[in-house]
Amino acid sequence: MADWLIAPYDPADLPAVVALVNAAYRGEGAAGGWTTEAGYIDGQRTSAQDLAADLAAESRPTLLVLRGKPGGPILACAMIELLAASDGATKAYIGMITVDPAQQAAGLGRVILAAAEDHALASGALRAEMTVVSIRDTLIAWYERRGWRLTGEVRPFPYDDPRFGVPRRPDLAFVVLDKPLN
Protein backbone atom coordinates (compact mmCIF):
# COMPACT_ATOMS: atom_id res chain seq x y z
CA MET A 1 0.00 0.00 0.00
CA ALA A 2 1.24 3.44 -0.85
CA ASP A 3 2.16 6.03 1.74
CA TRP A 4 -0.35 8.84 1.62
CA LEU A 5 0.20 12.37 2.82
CA ILE A 6 -2.70 13.42 5.05
CA ALA A 7 -2.78 16.85 6.64
CA PRO A 8 -5.16 19.69 7.49
CA TYR A 9 -6.03 21.67 4.40
CA ASP A 10 -4.30 24.90 3.52
CA PRO A 11 -6.65 27.78 2.59
CA ALA A 12 -5.01 27.78 -0.85
CA ASP A 13 -6.49 24.27 -1.28
CA LEU A 14 -10.07 25.54 -1.09
CA PRO A 15 -10.78 25.68 -4.88
CA ALA A 16 -9.33 22.18 -5.38
CA VAL A 17 -11.37 20.77 -2.48
CA VAL A 18 -14.58 22.34 -3.81
CA ALA A 19 -13.93 20.91 -7.28
CA LEU A 20 -13.19 17.47 -5.82
CA VAL A 21 -16.31 17.43 -3.63
CA ASN A 22 -18.59 18.58 -6.44
CA ALA A 23 -17.13 16.03 -8.87
CA ALA A 24 -17.54 13.15 -6.42
CA TYR A 25 -20.99 14.03 -5.10
CA ARG A 26 -22.63 15.50 -8.16
CA GLY A 27 -20.62 14.17 -11.11
CA GLU A 28 -22.76 12.51 -13.74
CA GLY A 29 -22.48 8.81 -14.55
CA ALA A 30 -19.01 7.30 -14.50
CA ALA A 31 -17.54 10.78 -14.03
CA GLY A 32 -19.08 10.86 -10.57
CA GLY A 33 -17.87 7.47 -9.41
CA TRP A 34 -19.97 5.07 -7.37
CA THR A 35 -20.71 7.65 -4.66
CA THR A 36 -22.41 10.26 -6.85
CA GLU A 37 -25.75 11.73 -5.79
CA ALA A 38 -26.43 13.13 -9.28
CA GLY A 39 -29.35 10.78 -9.88
CA TYR A 40 -31.45 12.32 -7.13
CA ILE A 41 -29.90 15.69 -6.21
CA ASP A 42 -29.01 18.40 -8.74
CA GLY A 43 -26.74 21.40 -8.29
CA GLN A 44 -23.39 21.69 -6.60
CA ARG A 45 -22.57 19.96 -3.31
CA THR A 46 -20.64 22.95 -2.00
CA SER A 47 -19.16 26.27 -3.02
CA ALA A 48 -15.97 28.02 -1.98
CA GLN A 49 -18.05 30.54 -0.03
CA ASP A 50 -20.08 27.88 1.81
CA LEU A 51 -17.07 25.70 2.59
CA ALA A 52 -15.05 28.68 3.83
CA ALA A 53 -17.96 29.66 6.10
CA ASP A 54 -18.25 26.09 7.42
CA LEU A 55 -14.52 26.01 8.18
CA ALA A 56 -14.71 29.38 9.95
CA ALA A 57 -17.65 28.31 12.13
CA GLU A 58 -17.33 28.63 15.89
CA SER A 59 -16.76 24.87 16.23
CA ARG A 60 -13.67 25.18 13.99
CA PRO A 61 -13.95 21.90 12.08
CA THR A 62 -10.83 20.30 10.65
CA LEU A 63 -10.66 19.49 6.96
CA LEU A 64 -8.14 16.76 6.22
CA VAL A 65 -6.81 16.35 2.69
CA LEU A 66 -5.01 13.35 1.25
CA ARG A 67 -2.34 13.61 -1.43
CA GLY A 68 -0.18 10.98 -3.06
CA LYS A 69 2.93 13.18 -2.94
CA PRO A 70 3.94 16.59 -1.59
CA GLY A 71 2.31 19.31 -3.66
CA GLY A 72 0.34 16.72 -5.63
CA PRO A 73 -3.37 16.91 -6.33
CA ILE A 74 -5.85 16.35 -3.53
CA LEU A 75 -7.21 12.82 -3.94
CA ALA A 76 -9.52 12.66 -0.92
CA CYS A 77 -10.79 14.73 2.00
CA ALA A 78 -12.90 14.53 5.14
CA MET A 79 -14.23 17.08 7.61
CA ILE A 80 -14.22 16.50 11.37
CA GLU A 81 -16.19 18.66 13.79
CA LEU A 82 -15.98 18.19 17.55
CA LEU A 83 -19.28 18.43 19.40
CA ALA A 84 -20.54 18.01 22.95
CA ALA A 85 -22.46 14.77 23.40
CA SER A 86 -25.62 14.67 25.51
CA ASP A 87 -23.66 13.03 28.35
CA GLY A 88 -21.10 15.85 28.35
CA ALA A 89 -18.41 13.84 26.58
CA THR A 90 -16.89 14.96 23.31
CA LYS A 91 -18.08 13.36 20.10
CA ALA A 92 -17.15 14.07 16.51
CA TYR A 93 -19.23 14.61 13.43
CA ILE A 94 -17.37 13.20 10.43
CA GLY A 95 -18.62 14.32 7.05
CA MET A 96 -17.81 15.31 3.50
CA ILE A 97 -15.81 12.14 3.03
CA THR A 98 -14.76 12.45 -0.57
CA VAL A 99 -12.55 10.50 -2.95
CA ASP A 100 -11.58 11.59 -6.45
CA PRO A 101 -13.94 9.58 -8.71
CA ALA A 102 -10.96 8.48 -10.85
CA GLN A 103 -9.31 7.05 -7.70
CA GLN A 104 -12.32 5.25 -6.25
CA ALA A 105 -11.76 1.53 -5.59
CA ALA A 106 -8.08 2.22 -4.77
CA GLY A 107 -8.68 2.10 -1.00
CA LEU A 108 -8.52 5.86 -0.45
CA GLY A 109 -11.97 5.96 1.14
CA ARG A 110 -10.81 3.59 3.87
CA VAL A 111 -7.61 5.62 4.32
CA ILE A 112 -9.28 9.03 4.67
CA LEU A 113 -12.08 7.63 6.86
CA ALA A 114 -9.53 6.02 9.22
CA ALA A 115 -7.55 9.27 9.30
CA ALA A 116 -10.71 11.22 10.21
CA GLU A 117 -11.57 8.74 12.96
CA ASP A 118 -7.98 8.85 14.30
CA HIS A 119 -8.03 12.67 14.26
CA ALA A 120 -11.33 12.71 16.15
CA LEU A 121 -10.03 10.28 18.77
CA ALA A 122 -6.75 12.21 19.18
CA SER A 123 -8.87 15.35 19.68
CA GLY A 124 -10.73 13.77 22.59
CA ALA A 125 -13.83 12.31 20.92
CA LEU A 126 -14.93 8.91 22.15
CA ARG A 127 -17.69 8.48 19.54
CA ALA A 128 -18.32 9.74 16.06
CA GLU A 129 -21.46 10.20 14.03
CA MET A 130 -22.26 10.95 10.43
CA THR A 131 -25.32 11.34 8.27
CA VAL A 132 -25.92 9.72 4.91
CA VAL A 133 -28.80 10.23 2.47
CA SER A 134 -31.19 7.41 3.34
CA ILE A 135 -31.51 5.91 -0.15
CA ARG A 136 -27.73 5.32 -0.45
CA ASP A 137 -27.87 1.67 0.60
CA THR A 138 -24.54 0.72 -0.97
CA LEU A 139 -22.72 3.57 0.77
CA ILE A 140 -24.41 2.84 4.11
CA ALA A 141 -23.33 -0.81 3.80
CA TRP A 142 -19.75 0.34 3.05
CA TYR A 143 -19.70 2.33 6.31
CA GLU A 144 -21.23 -0.56 8.23
CA ARG A 145 -18.39 -2.82 7.06
CA ARG A 146 -16.06 -0.29 8.69
CA GLY A 147 -17.73 -0.49 12.09
CA TRP A 148 -20.38 2.21 11.73
CA ARG A 149 -23.92 1.37 12.85
CA LEU A 150 -27.29 2.86 12.00
CA THR A 151 -28.77 4.49 15.10
CA GLY A 152 -32.37 4.44 13.93
CA GLU A 153 -32.43 8.24 13.95
CA VAL A 154 -33.63 9.90 10.76
CA ARG A 155 -33.22 13.62 10.11
CA PRO A 156 -35.16 15.56 7.49
CA PHE A 157 -33.51 16.55 4.23
CA PRO A 158 -33.30 20.37 4.01
CA TYR A 159 -35.47 20.75 0.90
CA ASP A 160 -35.60 24.53 1.29
CA ASP A 161 -31.83 25.04 1.57
CA PRO A 162 -30.10 25.21 -1.84
CA ARG A 163 -26.69 24.74 -0.17
CA PHE A 164 -27.54 21.02 -0.09
CA GLY A 165 -28.53 20.91 -3.75
CA VAL A 166 -31.84 20.66 -5.53
CA PRO A 167 -33.58 17.38 -4.70
CA ARG A 168 -35.13 15.42 -7.56
CA ARG A 169 -37.16 13.19 -5.23
CA PRO A 170 -39.63 13.89 -2.41
CA ASP A 171 -38.47 11.00 -0.19
CA LEU A 172 -34.96 12.08 0.83
CA ALA A 173 -33.84 12.07 4.45
CA PHE A 174 -30.60 11.58 6.37
CA VAL A 175 -29.95 8.48 8.44
CA VAL A 176 -27.54 8.80 11.36
CA LEU A 177 -24.63 6.39 11.78
CA ASP A 178 -22.53 6.11 14.91
CA LYS A 179 -19.20 4.50 15.83
CA PRO A 180 -17.26 4.19 19.09
CA LEU A 181 -13.69 5.41 18.55
CA ASN A 182 -11.89 3.88 21.54
Task: Please characterize this protein's 3D structure.
The chain has a domain at 5-130: 3-Layer(aba) Sandwich (Aminopeptidase). The chain has 4 helices and 9 strands. It has helices at residues 14-26, 48-55, 108-122, 137-144, and strands at 5-8, 41-42, 62-67, 74-84, 90-99, 127-133, 149-156, 166-167, 173-180. The strands form 2 sheets. It has a 7-stranded mixed beta sheet. The relative contact order is 0.17.
**Mean pLDDT over the full residue set:** 91
- Determine the structural class based on helices, strands and strand pairing: alpha+beta
Order of helices and strands: EHEHEEEHEHEEE
Uncertain residue segments: none
Distance between the termini: 25 Å
Overall 3D form: globular
The CATH homologous superfamily of the domain at 5-130 corresponds to Gcn5-related N-acetyltransferase (GNAT)
CATH class of the domain at 5-130: Alpha Beta
Q: Bin the helical content.
A: 10-25%
Tally of individual helices: 4
Task: Specify Rg, calculated over alpha carbons.
Answer: 16 Å
Q: Order of strands in the sheet with the most strands?
A: 1-3-4-5-6-9-7
The CATH topology name of the domain at 5-130 reads: Aminopeptidase
Strand content: 25-35%
Give structural attributes.
4 helices; globular; seven-stranded mixed beta sheet; two-stranded antiparallel sheet; 182 residues; alpha+beta; Aminopeptidase; single chain
Topology (SSEs and partners):
Layout: E1 5-8, H1 14-26, E2 41-42, H2 48-55, E3 62-67, E4 74-84, E5 90-99, H3 108-122, E6 127-133, H4 137-144, E7 149-156, E8 166-167, E9 173-180
Parallel strand pairs: 5-6
Antiparallel strand pairs: 1-3, 2-8, 3-4, 4-5, 6-9, 7-9
